Automatic annotation (TrEMBL):
One Pfam family per UniProt: G-alpha
Gene3D superfamilies, per database record: GI Alpha 1, domain 2-like, P-loop containing nucleotide triphosphate hydrolases
Record key words, sorted: GTP-binding, Lipoprotein, Magnesium, Metal-binding, Myristate, Nucleotide-binding, Palmitate, Transducer
Gene: GNAI2_0
Domain of life: Eukaryota
One function term, GO molecular function aspect: GTPase activity
Source organism (scientific name): Liparis tanakae (Tanaka's snailfish)
Keyword Metal-binding: yes
Protein name: Guanine nucleotide-binding protein G(I) subunit alpha-2
Length: 184
């Protein structure tokens, strides 16, 4: 649905006039499917027709200009399998899922007798103020960014690219907070 919504803002037309009706039907069928918890055949057909449209494909190529899941093409290209009534997610399907992180998720694990705490923190600016307590007693920070997101726009500010090399503002924020915590 993100691609369909972006068509208007990016001023991209569908290659077939019938796809405009499909786009409207997509929203109606999606709402009903979400309520019922099923993936109806009509929704699958509409989605397949839209995904095959060259206008949609042009919009997909410009996905760095709007918010789109990295795995959208994977799922859309495999829609026939995913839309089956007896669908069981593969390991790849599960690995490619994404849930927006809000707040802080703490995971404990041990590797070669070393105990680690990993914090997955919400990446949005509004979430950053919640991170400060994660730095207490820290001896190392591994700062991870998605390589696939280097040229994508921020969800909260579509004028700004997410990963300014090397996410300079965020890196400085983290380092300065660590220095502040260690100050006498």
């Amino acid at each position: 649905m993100a691609i369909v919504k972006a068509m208007a803002s990016l001023k991209i037309d569908y290659s077939s006039p019938g796809r405009l009706d499909d786009a409207q039907q997509l929203f109606a069928l999606s709402a009903a499917a979400e309520e019922q918890g099923v993936f109806p055949d009509d929704l699958s057909k509409v989605t397949k027709r839209l995904w095959a449209d060259s206008g949609i494909q042009s919009c997909f190529v410009r996905s760095r200009e709007y918010q789109l899941n990295d795995s959208a093409a994977y799922y859309l290209n495999d829609l026939a399998r995913i839309a089956k009534a007896d669908y069981i997610p593969s390991q790849q399907d599960v690995l490619r899922t994404r849930v927006k992180t809000t707040g802080i998720v703490e995971t404990h694990f041990t590797f070669k007798e070393l105990h680690f705490k990993m914090f997955d923190v919400g990446g949005q600016r509004s979430e950053r103020k919640k991170w400060i307590h994660c730095f207490e007693g820290v001896t190392a920070i591994i700062f991870c960014v998605a390589l696939s997101a280097y040229d994508l726009v921020l969800a909260e500010d579509e004028e700004m690219v997410r990963e300014n090399p090397p996410s300079s503002d965020l890196c400085v924020f983290i380092c300065m907070n660590c220095i502040t915590l260690r100050a006498p």
